[in-house]
């Protein structure tokens, strides 16, 4: 793979992290200043005021895009059309024609050891996908959780369109539960991964462990320039099980997290911060721990994927069987979270932007904990405001 870490890239990445740190609860791509329209060259940079989303929003399911999927987990829209979806238990990646719903299996990823909450999980496209055609995947093996990249060649026969996996990053702890699994490339071109503590609580507070963390690395799997801990991919720690990552329009990072028995969380991520688990679940009075911006009882949430659209974070809930809207003002909630689709489609796993006011949303009723209908699992097109 082509190396990206030239001097300019390093400097830009460090600047992005510095802005996030200095602005309070910003993420690694924190609200960078821009020159407002009409200013003259050399005038001071200022940050334009942020639009405030309405206190109340709306959700409309436009259509069912695809049906009869087996344990869908990761979802990645392709440039020019098409959706890639991973099957946690089958270890396959399938392309969905988002207009017709036609399914084409690209192939099975070798080495996937699906058991419990582990298997073939998150998907992400290379920042250079237009030239390198690489798909990144987070997968559970017999020994660990790891991130691999694979060449996608649609000209090959169906079932044989994936190249051999190249291990980008290995050694993330695995377990029957809490394997994390969400990966995404950020606005800075770096690869982010949410991991779980596998049920071993102590891993979350151990900065030398990769469990219970949000990781930030180069596309080649090296610690990203500007990370808060020397020679480490760890961006933040004290997490229980992170399965949602998303950036707002100011490049601030947010993450969803499974709680235990009391509080699930939505967090604004600040590099180097401790998010409390297992010492704190939900909001804490201890200043050592970074408090969530919103929290829910697990029966209402058990959150997995998140996406940003129309001024809000949209959060898919598994046990809660609903889609949450969390309107934002900066890195705080502007109004109380609002629930949609409660119980209508069962467990919801992954939500990704589909452009403008649209989202792609997957159900997760065939994962062993849901009650699948004859057409599950499904991908839905949803219009939001």
TrEMBL record:
A Pfam cross-reference name: GSDH
Ranges where the Glucose/Sorbosone dehydrogenase domain occurs: 69-369
InterPro entries referenced in this protein's UniProt entry, alphabetically: 6-blade_b-propeller_TolB-like, Glc/Sorbosone_DH, Quinoprot_gluc/sorb_DH_b-prop
Signal sequence bounds: 1-23
Keyword annotations: Signal
Protein's UniProt keywords contain Lyase: no
Region (Disordered): 28-55
Name of the featured protein: PQQ-dependent sugar dehydrogenase
Organism: Streptomyces macrolidinus
């Amino acid at each position: 793979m082509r190396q990206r870490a030239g001097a300019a890239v390093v400097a830009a990445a460090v600047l992005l992290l510095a802005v996030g740190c200095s602005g309070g609860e910003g993420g690694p791509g924190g609200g960078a200043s821009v020159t407002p329209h009409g200013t003259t060259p050399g005038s001071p940079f200022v940050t334009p005021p942020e639009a405030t989303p309405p206190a109340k929003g709306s959700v409309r399911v436009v259509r069912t895009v695809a049906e009869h999927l087996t344990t869908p987990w990761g979802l990645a829209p392709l440039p020019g059309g098409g959706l890639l979806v991973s099957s946690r238990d089958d270890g396959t990646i399938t392309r969905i024609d988002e207009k017709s719903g036609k399914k084409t299996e690209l192939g099975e990823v070798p080495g996937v050891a699906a058991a419990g909450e582990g298997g073939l999980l998150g998907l992400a496209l290379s920042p250079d996908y237009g030239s390198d055609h690489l798909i990144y995947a987070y997968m559970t093996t017999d020994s660990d959780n790891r991130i691999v990249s694979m060449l996608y060649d649609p000209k090959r026969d169906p079932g044989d369109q994936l190249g051999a996996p190249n291990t980008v990053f290995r050694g993330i702890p695995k377990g029957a539960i809490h394997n994390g699994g969400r990966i995404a490339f950020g606005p800075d071109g770096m690869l982010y991964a949410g991991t779980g503590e596998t049920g071993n609580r102590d891993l979350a507070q151990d900065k030398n462990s990769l469990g219970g963390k949000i990781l930030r690395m180069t596309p080649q799997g090296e610690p990203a320039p500007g990370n808060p801990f020397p020679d480490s991919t760890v961006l933040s720690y004290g997490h229980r099980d992170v399965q949602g990552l998303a950036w707002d329009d100011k490049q601030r990072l947010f993450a969803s997290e499974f709680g235990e028995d009391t509080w699930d969380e939505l967090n604004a991520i600040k590099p180097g911060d401790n998010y409390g688990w297992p010492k704190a679940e939900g909001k804490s009075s201890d200043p050592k721990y970074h408090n969530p911006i919103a929290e829910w009882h697990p029966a209402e949430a058990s959150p997995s994927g998140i996406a940003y659209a129309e001024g809000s974070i949209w959060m898919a809930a598994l046990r809660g069987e609903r889609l949450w809207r969390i309107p934002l003002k900066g890195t705080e909630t502007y109004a109380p979270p609002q629930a949609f689709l409660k119980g209508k489609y069962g467990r919801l796993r992954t939500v990704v932007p589909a452009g403008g006011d649209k989202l792609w949303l997957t159900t997760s009723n065939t994962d062993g904990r849901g009650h699948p209908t004859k057409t599950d699992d499904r991908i839905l097109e949803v219009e939001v405001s």
